[in-house]
Design a protein that fits this description.
This protein is of the alpha+beta class and about 220 residues long. It contains three helices and ten strands; from the N terminus they run E-E-E-E-E-E-E-E-H-E-E-H-H. GO terms for molecular function: iron ion binding; isomerase activity; oxidoreductase activity, acting on single donors with incorporation of molecular oxygen, incorporation of two atoms of oxygen.
Length: about 220
């Protein structure tokens, strides 16, 4: 009997958690585990830990499968990452950072940054092929008008997968930053100025103050 310690982390953004069922399958170079339920409730920014019992050693863990299904209402889930500790103490990390929606299964490779030539196992080669096909399907291009740059072949951003859309959190942060910039320029005397600038140095002084705050905000 081989026991693997698994930790599943949920993203800390708003609505990242879910009350849908999440289960996991470990895929090693020698075999794979049975599908094991992680939990029926995930809270934003929290982690769930469990033990996965296998009849034999799976070898190096190369993939995990995350399975999501809902009993009643759909509730999307944002998975941050998964960490798997093998019986010999080896730690495997699987960065996910994506939304899981509906009844779905997502395969995640170990985050070791391997190249195509490093994929010796057929299952890894097939995973890479499927991932490429999915991206080609998601990013289809069309000509908006003659002479214009090409754009995505969709009529609305809502046709895109949630992992491609510009998130509401980013949009809110972007709007808030614009408001902050406008207020900064107003308080600095840049907006609604009734007189001419006295010199270029005066303009540089105002812009250096606002840029300094921008840099501080980014840091």
């Amino acid at each position: 009997m081989a026991v693997y310690k698994v930790t599943v982390a949920t993203g800390d953004m708003v609505e990242a958690g879910t009350n849908n069922s999440i289960s996991i399958t470990l895929v090693g170079s020698y075999g794979e585990s049975r599908q094991t339920t992680v939990s029926f409730l995930f809270l934003p920014g929290k982690e769930k830990s469990l033990s996965v019992h296998c009849g034999q050693d799976l070898g190096p863990i190369i993939l995990i499968r995350l399975h999501k299904w809902q009993l009643f209402l759909e509730d999307a889930w944002f998975c941050k990452d998964v960490r798997v500790t093998a019986p010999n103490g080896t730690l495997y990390r699987f960065p996910c950072y994506q939304w899981l929606e509906g009844v779905t299964t997502v395969e995640v490779r170990e985050g070791s940054g391997k190249k195509l030539v490093d994929d010796k196992l057929q299952i890894l080669k097939e995973h890479r092929r499927q991932e490429l096909a999915a991206r080609q399907e998601a990013y289809r291009w069309k000509n908006f008008a003659q002479g214009w740059p090409r754009c995505l072949n969709v009529d609305s951003i809502f046709e895109l997968d949630s992992n491609i859309q510009f998130s509401r959190i980013r949009a809110t942060n972007f709007t808030g930053f614009l408001i902050f910039q406008g207020a900064s320029h107003f308080l600095s005397g840049f907006l609604l100025r009734r007189t001419s600038w006295n010199s270029l140095d005066e303009m540089r002084t105002i812009f250096s103050r606002t840029q300094g705050r921008d840099i501080g905000e980014c840091l």
